[in-house]
Structures are given as C-alpha cells and as structure tokens.
Design a protein that fits this description.
Layout lengths: L1 E5 L3 E7 L14 E7 L1 H11 L3 E9 L2 H12 L3 E8 L5 E8 L2 E7 L11 H9 L3 E5 L4 H13 L3 E5 L8 H6 L2 E2 L3 H7 L5 H7 L6 E2 L5 E4 L4 E4 L12 H14 L4 H15 L12 H6 L11
Parallel strand pairs: 1-4, 1-8, 2-6, 4-5, 8-9, 9-10
Antiparallel strand pairs: 2-3, 6-7, 11-12, 12-13
Helix pairs in contact: 1-8, 3-4, 8-9
This protein binds adenosine-5'-triphosphate and alpha-D-ribofuranose.
The site of adenosine-5'-triphosphate has 23 residues, from helix 8 and helix 9.
Length: 300
C-alpha cells in the first residue's frame, strides 16, 4: 500500500520563551533550536515510522538546509526520488515560537512555492502508483487543485489536510476523499456554517481534529467523537501531521474510520510528548508498547 505525499519540506527555527513580546518590544527567551519540519515532510515521516511505504514529492533549495532535509527523509525510509532541488529559491523555513505549551508559526515557503501545476508531468507515474495521495496547504493552491483533478480522473484516493487554512471550492471538497482541518481551519473553510452542519454535509470525509479532545466526524447517521489520549504535552507542533500520517497508514491497512482515528489519536498523543514536529513521532513498535494498543490496530 503506497502513500505519496506531495507538499512542503522545511527547517523549523524554534524559540522557547516564557514571555511573548508585544509589537515593538524585545524580550529575553529561553532556548533556540532547529528541527525538521514542513507539513508535507512531517506527514511523510509520520506514516513511514508507522510502517507505510511512503514517497515524498516536493522541492527544496540548493542549500545546506535542503541537503539536511533530504538526508533526514532518507534516514526515515521515505523515498526521495521525486524531491527536486531548485537553484532560484532557498529551502522552506518555519519560524516557531513556543509559549505556554502552544505554538505560533510564520512559514516562509521558499522552494515549496516552486511546486507548479505543470510539474505533475514529472511525477504522474508516482501518483498513478499510489493508493493514497496526501496534500497540505504549504504549496500553491493551483498545484494542489491540479493534483486533486488528476487523482480524481484516475480514481486515486486523496487526503487534503487544509493547513494552514485557505478557502477551497465546493468542487475540490467533493473531489477529495478525506479533508482533515483542525477546528480553527474548519471555521475558516466553512464560514457561516456550524461544525454540526458541515460534519453532516460531508459524512466519512470531513474529519475535524479537536486537539486534546481528539477528533470528530459524521458517519452518515450521527456524529462520532473519537477521544484523544490523556497525556502531558511537551510540544504540540506537528500533532496534526502525526495524526494525518497515522490515519492514512491505518486506512491503507484496511481499518475503518473510527479505528483509524483511534490509531491517529494514539500516534499524535505520543508525538506531543516529544520535542519538535518529528521528534516525538512514534514507530509502530512504540505504539505497540502503549497499554491501550492491545491488538486492535495490528496490521496484516
Ligand atoms: P498542530 O498544528 O499543532 O500540528 P493541529 O492544530 O493541526 O496540530 P490538533 O487538533 O491540535 O491539530 O491536534 C491533532 C491531534 O493531535 C488531535 O486530534 C489529537 O489526536 C492529538 N493531540 C493534540 N493535542 C493533544 C494533547 N494535548 N493531548 C493528547 N492528544 C493531543
Ligand atoms: O504542522 C507543523 C509544521 O507546520 C511545522 O513543522 C512547520 O514547518 C509548519 O509548517
């Protein structure tokens, strides 16, 4: 079962602080570190650590960050044959402030913005060989739409994690197989509609993540909340990415949506106890060690 992630790869520049500066103010923070990030790369790594066969499609700059990003993906077992290096843009970066167990992020897309609709020609065979294609919103919208169109025409399932939020037309919501906003993103995607209304409108397709409360979807009859695991988070950066990578892995292993979301909640709960978007992402072995794993998520 093959997953292809088309999307962003970045370096995260992470600052931890006890005081957040107001506009025009300077404060002394606690720590600075760099980590691997980008929603695309994070989701690819999450799925690969959980045993999925994953290919990454995207662009990095011809710089040291790009070299490190590619090496990191390779070391996690992600196929990087469709990761291209571009000379006219720097590698993507994300500038993250961790404050009171939550993050605020500024993304500079760089090479990620060089993913253009016409590039599909160079990786159409990869899409055709995929059981599921995962997308996020850190590459241009036109490129995502061209990929969704292509997959729709060739009946390849797609999962769009619409993060960061940007509006999406009804046509593309219809064409994707799964749409996974968090609550904030759902409110931007569906202005003027209640969460209840939109969940019922897109049964078994729209999954809204609820942070420490888990995730919710509508099964065609009723709303189903799949509760999160109670943990003490260290860094929630990448929780959504772990959730998406894990959910995709479980679905491709034949799990129904409620079970897949339970698996995704467990993977994300483990990940938020580690530092950095990818730092805490579990392997399948780590999942199995968790007391609530039992055998309910064993894959064939
Ligand atoms: P991020 O942008 O921080 O990567 P997100 O905002 O996209 O995440 P959330 O809804 O906050 O997404 O979280 C995604 C999933 O991660 C949740 O559905 C849940 O399974 C898990 N999760 C997040 N925060 C916690 C927490 N504090 N405790 C347990 N699980 C959590
Ligand atoms: O979802 C978390 C990711 O969002 C970070 O790794 C950062 O790169 C931002 O794009």
């Amino acid at each position: 079962m093959k997953i292809t992630v088309v999307g962003s790869m970045s370096t995260d520049f992470v600052v931890t602080t006890d005081i957040k500066p107001n506009q025009g103010e300077t404060v002394i923070g606690k720590n600075f570190t760099t980590a691997f990030g980008g929603k695309g790369a994070n989701q690819a790594v999450a799925a690969s650590r959980l045993g999925a066969e994953v290919s990454m499609v995207g662009k990095v700059g011809n710089d040291a960050f790009g070299t490190a990003i590619i090496a990191n993906l390779e070391s996690t077992g992600v196929d990087i044959s469709h990761v291209e290096r571009v000379t006219h843009s720097e590698s993507g970066s994300a500038h993250i402030v961790l404050f009171q167990e939550d993050n605020s992020i500024i993304v500079i897309p760089g090479a990620n913005n060089e993913m253009l609709p016409q590039d599909i020609e160079t990786f159409s065979d990869q899409l055709l060989a995929s059981d599921l294609v995962i997308l996020q919103n850190e590459i241009p919208q036109a490129t995502n739409e061209a990929i969704i169109d292509f997959c729709w025409e060739h009946t390849i399932d797609t999962l769009l994690n619409p993060a960061p939020a940007r509006s999406i037309s009804e046509e593309y919501i219809e064409k994707v197989s799964y749409l996974t906003p968090n609550e904030h993103e759902a409110a931007i995607l569906f202005p003027g509609q209640t969460q209840k209304e939109v969940l019922a409108k897109y049964p078994n397709k729209l999954i809204i993540t609820l942070g420490s409360r888990g995730a919710v979807f509508h099964n065609g009859k009723e709303e189903v909340v799949v509760p999160a695991f109670k943990v003490k988070p260290l860094d929630t950066t990448g929780a959504g990415d772990t959730f998406n990578g894990a959910m995709a892995t479980a679905l491709l292993n034949g799990k129904e949506l409620p079970e897949a979301l339970g698996f995704a909640n467990l993977a994300a709960a483990i990940s938020v106890q580690g530092f950095g978007a990818q730092g805490g992402m579990p392997t399948l072995e780590m999942m199995k060690e968790h007391s609530s794993y039992e055998k309910k998520w064993d894959f064939k």
